[in-house]
Amino acid sequence: MRFFSILLTMVVFVGLSSAKAQNNDEQQIRNILKAQNEAWNTGNLESFMEPYWHSDSLMFIGKSGVTYGWQATLDNYKRGYPDKTAMGKLTFTFIQFKPISKDTYFVVGKWHLARTIGDLEGHYTLLWKKIKGKWNIVADHSS
């Protein structure tokens, strides 16, 4: 009976530790998204792009199709949003944070650009992966 009590205590402890790690990971991603939002609103596309995986394997899916690579994605943003007027003010609304594994998260949300030249909005899905201890967006589908 004592063995069962010890085993049950260990299972509960491991479960709580896992839940705490997930909450910590989710909070880290939320903080990164907040910083990314702030970077956009100051017109700093390079800082906005910082959480994206610096790899040719980064996948961005938008209205023009699939783009591969960090630099190509940044170049597309620069073409689409050449100045602060085009960039407007970005607001993220989070819909879901779903852990896929201990180092992978799936995030769904909504984006809104308030602009003097006409507002834009849509939804996004982000696949986050922890690489070398750092959370990175490895795939982004924004519509």
From TrEMBL:
The keyword Signal applies. The keyword Membrane does not apply. InterPro entries: DUF4440 (IPR027843), NTF2-like_dom_sf (IPR032710). Keywords: Signal. It comes from the Bacteria. Gene3D superfamilies: 3.10.450.50. Pfam families: DUF4440 (PF14534). SUPFAM superfamilies: NTF2-like. Transmembrane segments: none annotated. Residues 29-137 form the DUF4440 domain. Residues 1-21 form the signal peptide. This is Uncharacterized protein DUF4440. It comes from Chitinophaga skermanii.
